[in-house]
Amino acid sequence: MEYTPNIVGFACQWCTYAGADLAGNLRCKYPPTIKLIRVPCSGRVKPEFILDALAKGADGVLVGGCHFGDCHYKDGNRKTANRMILLKKMIADMGFEPKRFRLEWISGAEGQKFADVVSEFTEELIKLGPNTIVEENAA
Amino acid sequence: MSKIGVYVCHCGENIAGVVDVEDVRQYAEQLDGVTVTRRNLFMCSDPGQEMIRQDIASGLVDRVVVAACTPRTHEPIFRTTLEKAGLNKYLFEMANIRDQGSWVHAHDKYGATAKAKRIVASAVGKAANLHPLEDKFVDVTPAALVIGGGVAGIFSALELAKMGHKVYLVEKQPSIGGAMAMLDKTFPTNDCSACILTPVMVEAANHPNIELLTCSEVADVNGYIGNFNVRIRKNQTYVDWNKCTGCGACAEACPVRTANEFNGGMDHRGAAYIHFPQAVPKKAVVDMSVCINCAGRKLGTEPRISKKTGQPVLAACEKACPSGAIDRSHHLPAEGTLRDIEVGVIIVATGYQVMEKENFPEYAPDSPNVITALQMERLISATGPTGGKLLRPSDHRKPRTISFVSCVGSRDVRHHTYCSRVCCMYMIKQARLIKEKYPDIRIFMHVIDVRAPGKDFDEYYTRARDMGITFVKGKVGGMEILPADQVRVLGYDVDLGSNIEVDADMVVLASAMEQPPTAKLLARKIGLSFDGAGFFKELHPKLKPVETAVEGVFLAGCCQGPKDIPDTVSQAKGAAAAAAIPLCQGKVRIDPTISEVDTEKCSGCGICTPLCPYNAIVLKTYSGRPRAMIDITQCKGCGVCTAACPSAAILLHGYTDVQILSQIAALTRAA
Hints:
The complex is a heterodimer. By secondary structure, chain A is α/β, with parallel strands linked by helices. Chain A has helices at residues 16-25, 47-55, 76-93, 111-128, 133-138, and strands spanning 7-12, 34-39, 60-65, 101-105. Chain A is 44% helix and 17% strand. In chain A, strand 1, helix 1 and strand 2 form a beta-alpha-beta unit. The two termini of chain A are 22 Å apart. Helix content of chain B is 27%, strand content 24%. Chain B has a five-stranded parallel beta sheet. A five-stranded parallel beta sheet of chain B has the order 20-27-21-22-23. In chain B, helix 6 crosses helix 7 (193-206). The longest helix of chain B has 21 residues, at 565-585.
């Protein structure tokens, strides 16, 4: 069977989640690979969540927040950005391809951008192949 | 063990046309904790909601998952359903299989169904770990702040004041009135703008419930719905407004001549000036950025005594003022004065700006006879720089040919893709006013098409054609400056199918309405977001047109998008009605989806305290040790602290670690 990547997305409810809804309103097309978990702010996303998703076999993880300056909670997205710098290093150390993780700023007005990001991320994950760490660990 | 009911919505064909809803329902049946699965054509309809109520009433379910559209619009509806059935409304979760499912994956029905199943599993996983939460209530400060004193702000303030609420009306200019005060007449009735606006301005200024704060700006906003703390900066006017009578003697005496912004820079004002003749409040201000300090002494020093006369040497404005309102020996702070006010709600009505002609190098901005439509308003206004006589700026002679150019900066991918909505109508209005007064002037209107969709608008347009105004359908590509200050308009005529050239004495650019750059600063203070066009974003484009994502903050007028005066007034009255709801209720609900510290787990490390954007977390001594405490009225539930706590002692209700981890598990489980 053809490989379809499974992407777990964490989307802040004010920007990226709203952007994903707008993509629906605009009937943008993107592959059904991403499933969003709604969070109030990207700053709610514990780095452990991303590692947990990858360890459980997600092929990719996307964290989406507001553009700098647009955060509903003043600067939660900047805190996210700082945390993710460190996380990106850890992902590689733990044996995952760093490309499996993406941090994107998508506003509530950027429905098309959301669709484009998911399409592009899916393409990249297809090139990368499935996340096999679970099976490797089991073996 | 929880008893979860899963309800799959068809949304007519919206979902069922793409997703195999029966397959999703069957899949949900075998998920852990699920006791009931059903589907309905429209879950949000009364029969759909009744289905849920019945299941709760008969004890079949104690947690509800609805797989339908987005929780951003429908979560409140279903929470009310739970509440009515006697179940805690926070025991509800939505699976978004429409906006993020069927609508975007119509090309892949199998994939869309598979995704819908996973999303339902994720929602069920979260639902199993939901806890009942209780709403809390706090008192509302019985006052409103209206930011912006244009027609939108004035009407919002007046409506609230008439309902009996205290209103602070903040305007950064010395007078209220906004852009409408600059207009000559208004379409489609040709009412004189000042004649209809000035009485309302006076009414607002005299209303006992309205406190007018002009020359003022919002410096900072803190707090939340019901309890906003706002810091207002009153900019320095250098005139004692308690003494100023608005006689204008200082403005006449001032030796400075600087461009008068109110008249589009087409005449001059002094450094001491009154904003415009019908200003409300009618008070003078001194613009220190252009003051030449004619008495030759520093501000805040005593005047020199003339050896000849033995009298102090005063500046022209000081000498002229009959009421002693201008006294340059006072040391007045240039940054103005700060004042803190408390309000329960805020209406943002900050208006728009028009794009200046310098943005369009192709339209000969160097020619003084190329002007914006707002400048044309002043040129034909009786209170304008020419006293209402139409004289072209370069040589003050009456023009013989005038070209109007529409969609300048609007509907143009290089600038703004949106339609500014009012340009067609005000161009027609200006052309008609000119034609009525000077039938011999030839008028060409270059339009892409004419948009006249309002009440009596199309009739107004038809009459303009009958009056002999020439409409040329086609975009203007460029302009050339000719000798004798003429401008050659290089256009295209779709009807002729060829290029046309018009040698015009004057050109009027109907330039786009846009959000001024200062809006970004205000947005940051309040937490407002922007739409794709750069205007403030309303909560819902159709159903919540005046509300914003910040509870207790409402929008009115052109800051939300271009609109004409009738639409602005309607929206202003709508915003006032919406803002009055919390003021009338007297109490507001505090969302319980906020953070709480487990004092047993907290180690008192203090990592969370500086992270909180609202300073809601403080360390308090508890059982002899420091412990973090969260003020529920300050916390907005972002979860930044929750994600950072090394002891996992901070719980964000509604988005706990257990809930999110169960969603991750459901989304990654082998399909």
